[in-house]
């Protein structure tokens, strides 16, 4: 299992956001991994373990909404977070065309 997973729920439709490109990078911008959400809106990224430090997840939300013919305010969403230990990290987002929220999942 990857050290990092994510899940995107489209709050406007109440369905998983499938086909969203997601990129994981260090805070300095060095690429670590990339994936696309599956039919359930989920993706795993990265190696089995991430070194402690700050990372960013970039969700290509503009492409997701454009494919549905929906005008959206955010062309992408970037979430920056800190890895401090050896445990699994889950970073989900709740998404709509004009808002998003995130939290540290389990």
Description:
- This protein has 106 residues and is mainly beta.
- The chain has one domain: Transthyretin/hydroxyisourate hydrolase domain (Immunoglobulin-like, Sandwich).
- It has one helix and ten strands; from the N terminus they run E-E-E-E-E-E-H-E-E-E-E.
- The strands form two sheets. Strands 1, 2, 5, 8, 9 and 10 form a six-stranded mixed beta sheet that branches. Strands 4-3-6-7 form a four-stranded antiparallel beta sheet.
- Strand 3 (21-26) and strand 4 (31-36) form a beta hairpin.
- The chain starts with a strand and ends with a strand.
- The mean pLDDT is 94.
- It holds the Pfam family Transthyretin.
- It is an enzyme of class 3 (hydrolase).
Number of strands: 10
CATH top level is: Mainly Beta
* CATH topology annotation: Immunoglobulin-like
Number of domains: 1
Residue-averaged pLDDT: 94
Number of DSSP helices?
1
**Tell me about the biggest sheet?**
6 strands, mixed
Q: Give the helix proportion (percent range).
A: under 10%
Which homologous superfamily in CATH is the superfamily?
Answer: Transthyretin/hydroxyisourate hydrolase domain
Our Rg estimate from Cα atoms comes to 13 Å
- In whole angstroms, the N-to-C terminal distance is 14 Å
